[in-house]
Amino acid sequence: SLLFMGTGSVLYSTGKSKLTELGGLYKTMPRTMIYTVIGGLSISAFPLFSGFVSKSMTVSAFGEEHLMWVFLLLMLASAGTFLHTGLKIPYFIWFGKDQGIKAKEPPWNMELAMIIGSLFCIGLGIFYKPLYSLLPYPVHFEPYTAYHAWETLQILLFTQLGFFLLLNKLWCKDTISLDTDWFPRKLSNVFLWIVNKPLVAIEYKFIGEIYEFVIQKPIMMIASFFKTIDTVIVDGSITAMGKTALAGSRKMRQLQNGQIQHYAMFMVAGVIAIFVIVLFIK
């Protein structure tokens, strides 16, 4: 974010964004230059900056897991990041050929944001223990060892040496660049046309009809069949049992009129019925 703020301040103050149109701005925007260089060193994982204590942990983890091809790719990416972001962009903006641009430092609020970002980049690079304490697992990684610091410095210093040796090859040339944004924009329009026209027509006129006749209607017929069974047979049988029990209880209530002679008559009739059944069985 500090790099974005620094280059954004250059764009705000000069109105230019091409490296070939910039250069020599260290004279008129020295403080912004310092903030931008701090951001470049931080993202390049230079010692004493935040990237050194965070990026190195990730790279070392792959090395400890013996994933050497990932480890080497990340080391190469670190060198490339330093070459492009830490060297090339700051050099051509601040120390390139002076274009005579009369720029000035950005407004105080933009500079305040860059100061805060710079303090975080340096502070986290030195006082990294609070950052590690926020991680969900215990951290046993120690960034500031002699081996790790010397290894990182070798990569960065040799990258810097290669940059200055090949500076003439890396020098920005004022040419007409290919607008690569044209391809995704045009391809996205083609993609949207395919989705909105042929695919939508196929969906509504073909796939939708097949879905309705093959899946939706059979499922609705099966659901209607089981609904009929549930309503007529299951619910009907339960309702019939309830009505039968209610009618039987009403009949039984008529038999219980409180007259003892009736109870005695039923008891005698019951005994006779049992006696007849027993004799019939024998």
From TrEMBL:
Subcellular location: Cell membrane
Protein keywords: Cell membrane, Membrane, Oxidoreductase, Transmembrane, Transmembrane helix
Entry membrane topology: Multi-pass membrane protein
Entry keyword annotation includes Iron: no
Signal peptide: none
Transmembrane segments: 33-54, 66-87, 108-128, 148-167, 260-281
GO molecular function, one term: oxidoreductase activity
Any one annotated GO CC term: plasma membrane
NADH:quinone oxidoreductase/Mrp antiporter transmembrane domain span: 2-76
Protein name per its UniProtKB record: NADH:quinone oxidoreductase/Mrp antiporter transmembrane domain-containing protein
